[in-house]
Amino acid sequence: MIPKKTLRQREEEFRSLLATPAGMNELQELESRYAASGGPVRPLKASLITYLLVYERERGMITV
Fold this sequence. Notes:
Elements: E1 5-6, H1 7-17, H2 21-36, H3 48-58, E2 62-63
Parallel strand pairs: 1-2
């Protein structure tokens, strides 16, 4: 079993992905998958990173 990442670790991963166009595309694809799996649609003013972190935290994918 793979250990869960902490909130801080996951946030740092997301922030590093924001630095490149390919990483940004990866984050947007992740957002689309989360929304398609029943997650809420991200509000226009909400941060992409916050949206992803909240989704993963609510589903037990990361630890606090």
